[in-house]
Amino acid sequence: DILEGQFRPGFFTGVCTVVMKLFAAVLLPCGGGVAVFGKKDYQQLMVLRQMVRQMALPVEIMAGDTGRADDGLALSSRNGYLSEAEKAEALRLSRTLKALIDRWQAGARDLDRIEGEAMQALRDAGWLPDYVTLRCQRDLSPAVEGVPLVALAAAKLGSTRLIDNLELAY
Questions:
Q1: Which of 90, 111, 103, 108 has the alpha carbon at shortest distance from 164?
Q2: Strands (E), 39-95
Q3: Do 27 and 35 meet the contact criterion of CB atoms below 8 Å apart?
Q4: How do residues 113-153 score in pLDDT, each as one tens digit?
Q5: What distance in Å separates the CA atoms of residue 132 and residue 111, rounded to the nearest whole number?
Q6: CA atoms lying within 13 Å on the CB side of residue 110
């Protein structure tokens, strides 16, 4: 019920249902196996790992790195809905995440403030952000010092909702 779960109620229930049926049809008859899910949908990856743990499935969930274009844009089928101008503007999302990480690394610890400033920067550029946040990689709880973190964002550019994330390891 946080991040994507807050903005897309019921989404993860549907994802888990479909993936569980896939596992039941493909992996479980073989005694288990490995499934790769991309980090692009970071929270979804974590939800699926939790499902596997809770159901004690003989499945290993591996994380695939987010594919990026040469200019840094996270690859997504949603990019096909963007105009050329919007594709250029879409880079602002990953730059915003990088700026959030840079602020944290420079010593800023007021999460509400730095996340709010990141959201406002997107709004000022014409975006409609749902969230821009810095969280602990292990469980998506608010960022704390000394643990691996991930910056995550979801925002609408024109009529297209984009998501992205960048990991920060110590």
A1: 90
A2: 59-64
A3: yes
A4: 999 999 999 999 999 999 999 999 999 999 999 999 999 99
A5: 10
A6: 5
- Residue written as tokens 């952000």? 129
CA angle 36, 59, 49 (to 5 degrees): 65
Residues 112 and 118: their CA atoms lie apart, in Å, by: 10
CA distances from 1 to 6, 84, 129, 133, 150 (A): 5, 34, 17, 15, 18
Please report, for residues 41, 50, 90, 123, 140, the alpha-carbon distance to residue 46 in angstroms, rounded to integers and kept in the order given: 9, 6, 25, 28, 9
d(CA 143, CA 10): 25
Evaluate if pTM is beyond 0.85. Answer: yes
Angle at 139 between CA 78 and CA 120, to 5 degrees: 55
15, 23 in Cβ contact below 8 A?
A: no
- Cβ distance 123 to 151 under 8 Å? no
Q: Quick one: DSSP state of residue 82?
A: S
Buried b (16+ CB within 10 A) or exposed e, 9-40: eeebeebbeebbeebeeebeeeeeeebebbbb
Looking up tokens 């569980």, which residue turns up?
20
